[in-house]
Amino acid sequence: MKKVYDNFPNPSQKLEYPCGTIFSGKPTFNPHGDQYVLFKGAVITTGADSGKYPVQRVVGNYEFKFQLDLWCSTKFERHAIWQEFFKGFNNNSSAMGLSLQLTEYFNTFAHYSITDFDFSDSEEQSQRSEWRIRVGILVDCVAVIERNESLIETIENNVETPETIAPPADEAEGISII
Prior knowledge:
Layout: E1 3-5, E2 19-24, E3 28-40, E4 53-72, H1 75-89, E5 98-102, E6 108-120, H2 123-127, E7 131-149
Parallel strand pairs: 1-2
Antiparallel strand pairs: 2-4, 3-4, 4-7, 5-6, 6-7
């Protein structure tokens, strides 16, 4: 790709082939009933939250679609670009798609999957030398919240029991409950 645009090209805009355009859709949030802890940080020693710990919890996941348009100068170039793109996007045969780490979002991973594609062929497009592939991509990533919380620490029990236990006191000496 020579260039990637974040909007649809204007009719008078001269494109540098091959190029791409990306449009994102509206995200959907799906809450999880079974939240889990992703990370617990070190105890906070100063300020209002002193004695608490920063805790990151996965509370759901986000899904959104975006459309990637790959623009080419010829049908042949379009076919070659599609083959290369598809092979590169799905280079792991055990899990189709891409999983990319989001280093600025709690180091979680987002998974990208191709959901559909379309080779745009019409008389108008061929007259404009517009050879395009529309690719629908679904993105899925976890939703994380971070807040400072008090933690219950694990208490280690070191109570030892003797090998023999003394027999109970004689009933006559004890207290009788009637």
